[in-house]
């Protein structure tokens, strides 16, 4: 499977570069700070509430991490002039995109694994269900997967990594802000915008420990659409 | 065998190459010459299945590059104008990765890497990080990645660019050694760099093929070739002997020393030598006129295909 080969090289690239560790370290530090300052709260709170708060803040950091992780995926190949290597090898364009995306997902999973100490702290001092933790992390992974896919798309479009990050951020903020549109629009458009929103309707259930098929389907669909778009961008570039 | 027919590539309104047609036979080493911006890189990218042509056909071993790009890509090795290297990998890791990308099974990748490293004299650099390599070595790794999967057809885009004279010679030797095992298409904008290595030259200008053939053929078609000779001895005798073979011009004169240029095909070098020695003159140097070929190349490329068909036929 060529996609896995590409993913393995890409992941090794993350693990060897300083920037990969800097991204993880910086976001972990901020996530921990927010956990301490806000998620734990001033007054005594129920463990489930603290855990829900943790997932609330972590969702934001997961999106930010996705932007930074995905920006190099395809834009760096273009910057370094290595795309012709992939283009002239017997690969399908979708293998290239899938390999890149999977490497990003694996790296994001490493980041998420590093945050596990926070829910464990809650579990040590209080009472939380494993199901709640599982649902929350599933939500983070799905949200991250969709954000990474959008980032892969942005990275395919951009000429360099900075542009990729900016493009991705704009697209993700646009998707998040769909809920504002939903508030000012009338039905049935309001329903459409609300369903499209990256966070508003789809993430809170995970935060509270609920897994709805609807939300899982939304994130998977967004992942698919964005990766499909990235594949099309790569294909189109052969015509340029 | 590679067949190119009516190959055209537009970037927007601008045609980078127009109606290219040529054939490359198995085992040939072909030089692809043109000034910067003539369309060399575009042509090679299309042959390397990186870009799709606007129209025209590329057929490699019976497979069409547009309809069966997969089959074509398995048979080619491509070195783009900048070697596609990943700085954070070592030479060995990188080559193994490329080999597997191009369909070499993981179990065989290591032996193929060793083979490619031996061909390109990179064996000692196997464990070196690519980011630490000098330009010459990077270029060689670029060639190694193109041949690591043993492709039948190698496309090298300016492998000598930016190299010093010693490295250029090394690269030329490397390409010469590939002859026989691979069909090679190598581009350059400097004629003498590749003319000796190649069986045949394709000359492109303004996106069109303006001439093709061996160095001698080109020289003959474009107003014959020249032979340069340095002799010592009787001036009139020398001129007389050579005038019988072709038009002679005196390039330099210093007492009994004469540097002459005879406008005859370089194939006639033995005859010229015989005639001079037979007339009792001292033959100091005899060479084909490279200077002349260089100017032919320049005039061909400058006028951009005034009569391409005539020359190409």
Question: What do these coordinates show?
Answer:
The complex is a heterodimer of chains A (240) and B (313). Chain A has 240 residues and is mainly alpha-helical. The longest helix of chain A has 28 residues, at 130-157. The two termini of chain A are 28 Å apart. In chain A, 80% of the residues lie in helices and 0% in strands. Chain A is globular. The model of chain A has no long low-confidence stretch (mean pLDDT 94). Chain A is built from 13 helices and no strands. Chain B is of the alpha/beta class and 313 residues long. Chain B contains 12 helices and 14 strands. Chain B has helices at 40-47, 69-75, 91-101, 106-119, 135-147, 165-178, 191-195, 215-221, 235-243, 269-278, 290-302, 308-312; strands at residues 2-11, 14-24, 29-33, 55-60, 63-64, 76-79, 153-156, 183-188, 200-205, 208-213, 227-232, 248-254, 257-262, 282-288. Chain B has a 6-stranded mixed β-sheet with strand order 6-7-8-3-9-10, sandwiched between helices. In chain B, a hairpin with a 2-residue loop joins strand 1 and strand 2. In chain B, helix 3 (91-101) crosses helix 4 and helix 4 crosses helix 5 (135-147). The longest helix of chain B is centred in the middle third of the chain and has 14 residues, at 106-119. Chain B is globular, with a radius of gyration of 23 Å. The model of chain B is unreliable at 304-313 (pLDDT under 50).
The number of helical elements of chain B comes to 12
Overall mean pLDDT score of chain B?
A: 87
Count of strand segments of chain A: 0
Oligomer: heterodimer
Low-confidence regions of chain B: 304-313
Task: Work out the number of β strands of chain B.
Answer: 14
Topology:
The complex is a heterodimer of chains A (240) and B (313).
Chain A: H1 2-16, H2 18-39, H3 47-70, H4 75-80, H5 83-87, H6 93-114, H7 117-125, H8 130-157, H9 161-176, H10 178-184, H11 189-196, H12 204-207, H13 213-237
Helix pairs in contact in A: 1-6, 2-3, 3-6, 3-7, 3-8, 3-9, 6-8, 6-13, 8-9, 8-13, 10-11
Chain B: E1 2-11, E2 14-24, E3 29-33, H1 40-47, E4 55-60, E5 63-64, H2 69-75, E6 76-79, H3 91-101, H4 106-119, H5 135-147, E7 153-156, H6 165-178, E8 183-188, H7 191-195, E9 200-205, E10 208-213, H8 215-221, E11 227-232, H9 235-243, E12 248-254, E13 257-262, H10 269-278, E14 282-288, H11 290-302, H12 308-312
Parallel strand pairs in B: 3-8, 3-9, 6-7, 7-8
Antiparallel strand pairs in B: 1-2, 1-4, 4-5, 9-10, 11-13, 11-14, 12-13
Helix pairs in contact in B: 3-4, 4-5
């Amino acid at each position: 499977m060529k996609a896995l080969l590409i993913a393995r090289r890409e992941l090794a690239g993350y693990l060897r570069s300083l920037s990969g560790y800097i991204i993880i370290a910086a976001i972990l530090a901020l996530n921990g700070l927010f956990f301490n300052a806000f998620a734990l709260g001033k007054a005594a709170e129920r463990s489930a509430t603290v855990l829900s708060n943790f997932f609330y803040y972590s969702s934001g950091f997961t999106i930010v991490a996705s932007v930074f992780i995905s920006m190099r995926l395809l834009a760096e190949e273009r910057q370094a002039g290595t795309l012709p290597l992939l283009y002239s090898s017997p690969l399908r364009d979708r293998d290239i995109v899938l390999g890149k995306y999977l490497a990003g997902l694996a790296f994001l999973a490493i980041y998420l694994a590093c945050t596990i100490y926070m829910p464990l702290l809650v579990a040590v001092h209080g009472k939380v269900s494993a199901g709640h933790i599982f649902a929350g992390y599933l939500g983070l992974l799905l949200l991250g997967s969709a954000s990474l896919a959008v980032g892969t798309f942005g990275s395919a479009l951009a000429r360099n990594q900075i542009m990729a990050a900016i493009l991705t951020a704009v697209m993700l903020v646009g998707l998040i802000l769909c809920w504002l549109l939903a508030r000012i629009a009338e039905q049935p458009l309001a329903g459409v915008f609300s369903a499209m929103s990256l966070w508003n309707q789809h993430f809170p259930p995970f935060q509270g420990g609920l897994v709805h098929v609807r939300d899982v389907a939304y994130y998977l669909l967004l992942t698919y659409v964005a990766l499909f778009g990235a594949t099309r961008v790569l294909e189109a570039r052969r015509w340029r | 065998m590679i067949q190119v027919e009516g190959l055209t590539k537009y970037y927007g309104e601008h045609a980078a190459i127009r109606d290219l047609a040529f054939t490359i036979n198995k085992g040939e080493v072909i030089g692809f010459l043109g000034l910067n911006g003539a369309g060399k890189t575009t042509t090679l990218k299309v042959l390397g299945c990186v870009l799709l042509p606007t129209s025209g056909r590329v057929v490699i071993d019976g497979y069409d590059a547009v309809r069966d790009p997969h089959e074509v890509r398995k048979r080619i090795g491509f070195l783009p104008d900048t070697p596609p290297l990943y700085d954070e990998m070592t030479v060995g890791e990188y080559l193994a990765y490329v080999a597997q990308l191009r369909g070499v099974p993981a179990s065989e990748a290591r032996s193929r890497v060793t083979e490619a490293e031996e061909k390109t004299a990179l064996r000692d650099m196997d464990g070196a990080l690519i980011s630490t390599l000098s330009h010459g070595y990077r270029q060689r790794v670029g060639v190694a990645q193109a041949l690591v999967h043993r492709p039948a057809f190698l496309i090298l885009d300016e492998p000598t660019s930016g190299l010093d004279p010693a490295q250029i010679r090394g690269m030329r030797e490397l390409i010469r050694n590939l002859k026989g095992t691979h069909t090679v298409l190598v581009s350059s904008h400097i004629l003498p760099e590749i003319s000796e290595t190649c069986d045949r030259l394709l000359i492109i200008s303004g996106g069109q093929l303006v001439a093709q053939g061996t160095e001698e053929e080109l020289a003959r078609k474009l107003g014959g070739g020249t032979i340069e000779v340095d002799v010592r001895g009787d001036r009139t005798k020398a001129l007389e002997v050579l005038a019988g073979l072709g038009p002679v011009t005196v390039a330099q004169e210093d007492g009994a020393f004469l540097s002459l240029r005879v406008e005859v095909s370089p194939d006639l070098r033995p005859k010229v030598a015989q005639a001079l020695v037979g007339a009792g003159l001292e033959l100091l140097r005899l060479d084909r006129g490279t200077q002349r070929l260089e100017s032919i190349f320049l005039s061909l490329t400058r006028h951009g295909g005034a009569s391409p068909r005539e020359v190409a036929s």
